[in-house]
User: What shape does this take?
Amino acid sequence: MKISILTPSFNSGKYLERAIQSVLNQDYTNYEHIVVDGGSNDETITILNKHKHLIYVSEKDKGQSDAMNKAFHMSSGDLIVYLNADDEFAPGSFKKVVAAFQESDKIDMIVGNLLFLSPDEQLIRYPSARYRDILLYWKNLFPNNPVSYYYKRKVQIRIGDFPVDNHYSMDIWFLLKAYKLFKIAKVEAMLGTFHSDGTNKTATVDTGFALHNAVKTHLKKENPLLLPYFYFKLLVGRFM
Assistant: This one.
């Protein structure tokens, strides 16, 4: 199975080499790595030019969602995974994921565990493969970084492009739709590291507010019968 690794990037030169090396260090060779850069003016282009295996473009875009859409439309793999420029895959991830997909042709998405690393803490997050669980975003039961999930190409084709005006919650927007429509399976393996140094986008916005709105909007449109469940769990969760 061919894996398409898709990396949106903008002025991420201080992290980018680490991300690229985490791909090169995999014991799996049937992949393509596509980087869509938003016209960086740091060392990004020098790094990209150093790695001849990369497919990349560098041009002004409308933000991360736009870059993710461009990367997907440039790709040709059977499996899709997004690698943010400041994150990295765990060694051996590709083989573990491919083996899990090969166990059953009914599986559409594989979810694995994630290491969250910041200057202040190191946590292992264990996402769920259940739709109702990922509605409970405050419990970190959803895959909150794309290095922890891979999916078949048909998943993104059916869901469609990421909304280009969504700059903060595009991941859970996609996951809510994917979990509702497709077969998700869990592997008990560490698939990657989510780095948070206090300056990246996730650390500089009210993530909880963005996630809450994404879940609420999704349920109102796609599954209104679950809105009472969501608000009950939210209320109980605040007092536990």
Summary: Residues 176 and 218 are 7 Å apart (CA to CA). The mean pLDDT is 92. The first strand starts at residue 3 and ends at 9. The two ends are 44 Å apart (CA to CA).
